[in-house]
């Protein structure tokens, strides 16, 4: 029986002893936890108990908060309608247009109007709505190309926006951000500087905004040098965070490239740790300066740099000059700590293709490859395969590729992984000044006539990380690639002698390949040179566009020049409009005359003739590259002499012999009238004495050729005549 006395802490002692004697059958005497009829201090799990116990039931009225759908008022209910009154999680009120009842037709015009009113109501609730609306109205006039005195309109917009912190609020919106961009573009220098000063405190947030980032770009493009310097200074303390931001990293890279050397140093210092994030040190130029006087700090500083680089690498945002510079400093500092170096190299192996866009990044990529394990080397080669053509034709990327070719021991894998992927793009490589260097290194590695000694010394540092001998490695590579290159030359020999720059590389190839490959390439090239109409491009780099001028930093001059161009376009448009008006007037006069004639003759009215459409103006064709005779061009003259110089050492049928065999009387007649062509023939007979008699026989057979050579007074003709004993 349950006790009717009030329960509480004071009565627990009284009621405890009787319940201890009550033991349920079949249960152990000790450790009984749940008593079927107990009413003491123990909490009961039943349906009808009353008192202090908190019960799990449906209709109890104790102090327990119940989980139900219809609890009494005042309870915090966790069920039912979440939009009910009194629930703080009920969300926004339902203000959407109501759907029609069943059987009723939807009035779409009314629905669209309600949606539009709702959108307008939501916009008007913002405190900057009226200001933004007024600014946008003025901006519509400002952005029109026919508008004059745009700086006055900018002043009007600035008066509207220059209220409190309005500019900082509207700069991140998609519509008003465009207004700010136009203001920075068309404002007077003084007003542009004032607007920039207003925006400088919010630069960090703007660099991370989807729309405000374009305002920062306008400040960099049109701002004065002082504004650009302040823009960089405003980022101090947030460099690492911006380097790891998807939007901010690009702007940070642009600012780093345009910053002063001192500012670049301060930007790099923030990667060295939190100490330099808050305060800058002018004496610290590189990473090694941070622990020069306190060597015990080296481990902690390198750890901070590694953590920051890993953060950027995880975001895959390493295509930045700033990150490349810090990366290079870190790899040089970790030269002794192989464990940290291997961790970093492993993390950056997949990102090496993105590091080759700058000089520092290319050097860092080379170090990563040199210090990598065989597994990481294979990973790097695998990652650059799909970017090989871009890397080979890049200013800094081709250095990494040449260093890689010079350090790999497995020459068969080198050909398979690198050259085979580039072979299909040989013409693209030969058309690029950096691509030609890659081809030259493959056929003539370490040749001082092709490469600067300092470049050769830098590349050959990688030989220390290989096991195979230098000469053996280079010989194996040449043996594997000479046949495919010779085949390419034979298929389109005219391209390989299309200008002097390509011709120089072709000459190097011809001087290094041997055997059948040489004869196949030499035969094809000799046929091209011996053609009567052999023409090459005079300007190997290609003509520059006529309107392309050197960029200058005078912002006002840029704007003035653009304004002049617009006015010219407007004048052309207005003149065409006037012509249209005159045509319309003429048509009206013709129509009047036709009406009068119709009235007189009582004939039916004639229809107005359709106006003939104006013929579109022919587009100005770009000037074609001028072509000159190949034998007369100075650069190609050097190429031919370079090829003929090594012909005396050749076995079989050299280039000079094949050239003599392909020369016709008409070609010889044309060549004897050109000074440089006479020097080529002179070089030919000097380097190959066996051809001297052949040349004499050819000239003796053609009497007119001997007379022509004797009549010529050019230095080349005189020397050639003396060599062939003509005119003596």
Automatic annotation (TrEMBL):
<feature type="compositionally biased region" description="Basic and acidic residues">
    <location>
        <begin position="102"/>
        <end position="117"/>
    </location>
</feature>
<dbReference type="GO" id="GO:0007475">
    <property type="term" value="P:apposition of dorsal and ventral imaginal disc-derived wing surfaces"/>
</dbReference>
<feature type="compositionally biased region" description="Basic residues">
    <location>
        <begin position="607"/>
        <end position="617"/>
    </location>
</feature>
<keyword id="KW-0694">RNA-binding</keyword>
<feature type="domain" description="PUM-HD">
    <location>
        <begin position="134"/>
        <end position="485"/>
    </location>
</feature>
<dbReference type="InterPro" id="IPR011989">
    <property type="entry name" value="ARM-like"/>
</dbReference>
<feature type="repeat" description="Pumilio">
    <location>
        <begin position="198"/>
        <end position="233"/>
    </location>
</feature>
<dbReference type="InterPro" id="IPR001313">
    <property type="entry name" value="Pumilio_RNA-bd_rpt"/>
</dbReference>
<feature type="compositionally biased region" description="Acidic residues">
    <location>
        <begin position="575"/>
        <end position="602"/>
    </location>
</feature>
<feature type="compositionally biased region" description="Basic and acidic residues">
    <location>
        <begin position="65"/>
        <end position="78"/>
    </location>
</feature>
<dbReference type="GO" id="GO:0005730">
    <property type="term" value="C:nucleolus"/>
</dbReference>
<feature type="region of interest" description="Disordered">
    <location>
        <begin position="569"/>
        <end position="630"/>
    </location>
</feature>
<dbReference type="InterPro" id="IPR016024">
    <property type="entry name" value="ARM-type_fold"/>
</dbReference>
<dbReference type="GO" id="GO:0006417">
    <property type="term" value="P:regulation of translation"/>
</dbReference>
<dbReference type="InterPro" id="IPR040059">
    <property type="entry name" value="PUM3"/>
</dbReference>
<dbReference type="InterPro" id="IPR033133">
    <property type="entry name" value="PUM-HD"/>
</dbReference>
<dbReference type="GO" id="GO:0003729">
    <property type="term" value="F:mRNA binding"/>
</dbReference>
<dbReference type="Pfam" id="PF22493">
    <property type="entry name" value="PUF_NOP9"/>
</dbReference>
<protein>
    <recommendedName>
        <fullName>PUM-HD domain-containing protein</fullName>
    </recommendedName>
</protein>
<keyword id="KW-0677">Repeat</keyword>
<dbReference type="Pfam" id="PF08144">
    <property type="entry name" value="CPL"/>
</dbReference>
<dbReference type="InterPro" id="IPR012959">
    <property type="entry name" value="CPL_dom"/>
</dbReference>
<feature type="region of interest" description="Disordered">
    <location>
        <begin position="1"/>
        <end position="123"/>
    </location>
</feature>
